[in-house]
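Let's practice the habit of predicting before peeking. Look at the sequence and jot down your guess about where helices and strands might fall. Then scroll down.
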Amino acid sequence: MPIFTFTEVYSTMNGPLSSLTSLRDARSARVSSWDQRGRNQDNWTIGPGETRVLADLEGPGQITHIWTTQFCRRQFGPGLLDPYDTDTTAPVLEIHNALGLNWEQPDPDYYRKVLLKITWDDQPGPAVLVPLGDFFGVGHSMPNSYASALFTVSAKPEESLIFGGSAALNSWAPMPFNSRARIEIVNENDLPLVMYFYIDYELFRQPLPEDTVHFHARWTRSSPSSGWGPDLQTNSPQTNVAHLSDDGNFVILETTGTGHYVGCNLSVHHRQGTWWGEGDDMILIDDDTWPPSLHGTGTEDYFNHAWGMQKNAFPYHGTIVHESDVPGYSVTYRQHVVDPVRFASRIKVSIEHGHANHLSDDWAATAYWYQTLPSPPATILPVERRLPARPPAAEQPSAAPPPPDLAAEVTRMRAEYAARLQAYTDKLDQRSRRRAERSRAESAANTAHAADIRRRFR
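Done guessing? Here is the structure:
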């Protein structure tokens, strides 16, 4: 029987908590949206069309955790509270619109209008380019609480399962970088985004090992997927045709390089009213032709469910939005943390949208993987093609003519209302621009502070 020393045995312990029992020559640090004036406005404003640098870090190091929460609200009428008077109060006045003090609602689509962009080591293009919500598992711009190994979302019940609801978003995916990490938010909305965030990281004295691979994420959507039989009922005999290729599948990830695929989240808006699964997962690796190295047996099987999707959220697989909560909508995830799918030159991950691709639903997915640099070119759909499919809102009826005895007063009141609305929105815009200017200054100060920490830890 071979005899191993304690050190040899201990060095093989690779559990998720094993690093807590060893010393490491590293420096922990953070960049955040804290109010650098010492006040309590610990958020940044990112104006319409603006890109804001959240972190610009010199390596070598590793992002260990990202937390963020944000809101984006559209004004529909003039509030009775002066925006200047509430400039230093809570950022959201949670006052019901029925009271007449304010009239505002969350932008239901903003999670898809805002992009998270991350670039490693001065590469010409980003390694991560994903709508902010979808990166963390907020599919369809509709948050719901869940907990997984790499990501969590925490939403209050009244903010859950509604388009544009507020939530706390977390990532614990390790993200190493050698020379530089640059994390940006791109606001492609016509409204300002107000954001709180932490980006926790650690610095190392020595360059990363040569076998280090870098975190990547991409988002893709097909709306609708091009199905040949969306009018044929799922699981009917007429859909059970032979499909011996991945042609026409929804592609979650296709890339070249060397690395490993670590999972995805998938958002589906099912239009037929039956069942959107039954599509097999197929993963072609390196020199695969047919059959692929990994061929599955059904969409729910790939996500480690059975007989449809269940309402649960486990470390490596689960459901974030279930169709029983919001009919026609689902968000599911699979994380290959302990079973990464490794590739040496290329990988293609795809799933049939319905058996043999007969359905024409709205599919969107975020893929996560690690690979060697350079990062593959990143593209993303324009904002108008990223917006979630939502049920149509009720049309606002036109105003009827007022009674003759009220006509003069109604005309005067309407003019007063229009003037109040203009003055109110002007003040809001001015306040937002002032806050955005402060956020730009604090972004630069964060970069300088991170550089000083790096200088003191060599």
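How did you do? The CA atoms of residues 91 and 279 lie 45 Å apart.
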